[in-house]
Amino acid sequence: MSFDSRAFRNALGAFPTGIAVMTAAGPESHIGITVNSFTSVSLDPPLVLWCIHTDSRRYKAFTEAPGFTVSILASGHKAVSSRLAGPGEHNLDGIDLIPTELGPPALADSLAIFECALERVVEGGDHGILIGRVLRFARNDDAGAPLVYFQGRYGALAQGNPPDGVAGRRVTDGD
Fold it and tell me: What is the pLDDT at residue 164?
């Protein structure tokens, strides 16, 4: 029985994920890439990780950079996310940015920003797993709802009050 890679990818799409843009210093200027593989690893030390395909033209720039900046996207970032997700130009020209102490800029109006020193790159199949040590971070509670990816499409979560009797739960919209 052969392994159906397309069906596997579709099954993975049943897991909704947040979306982030990673920025780093490229050969000529800062570059960015959209990812949905960002996650926390450890609180002590503060580590995060994300994955990049080894065939990506940006692979070398990110794996050889001393660090990267993570911008967690809000629902208003859909156009920026789309632009930096596919093949083609990945400079940050025309994108609303804010400076960071690390160097690579962050996207303005992000839900959260993490400035990370590259700790390690681990091979994982056809991807590199980049582990970063968080040096600085910021959270923006006024940025709105998060941009999410689910079954091959963008969406957003609407935050509401938890249902009665269910501490910590949030209501999502039906769109």
Answer: 56
CB 95 within 8 A of CB 23: no
Number of domains in the chain: 1
What domain range is 140 assigned to? 5-156
For every residue of 138-169, which 3-state class applies, written as one string?
EECCCCCCEEEEECCEEEECCCCCCCCCCCCC
Q: What is the pLDDT of residues 2-19, one digit of tens each?
A: 888 888 888 878 788 899
Question: What is the distance between the alpha carbons of residues 123 and 126, in angstroms, rounded to a whole number?
Answer: 8
Q: How many CB atoms lie within 10 A of CB 70?
A: 24
Distances 25 to 38, 92, 105, 152, 160 between C-alpha atoms, Å: 19, 11, 9, 29, 38
Residue 113 scores a pLDDT above 50: yes
Q: What is the band of 21 on the pLDDT scale with cuts at 50, 70, 90?
A: very high
Expressed in angstroms, the distance from the first to the final Cα of the chain is 38
In this structure, what CATH number is given to the domain that contains residue 42?
A: 2.30.110.10
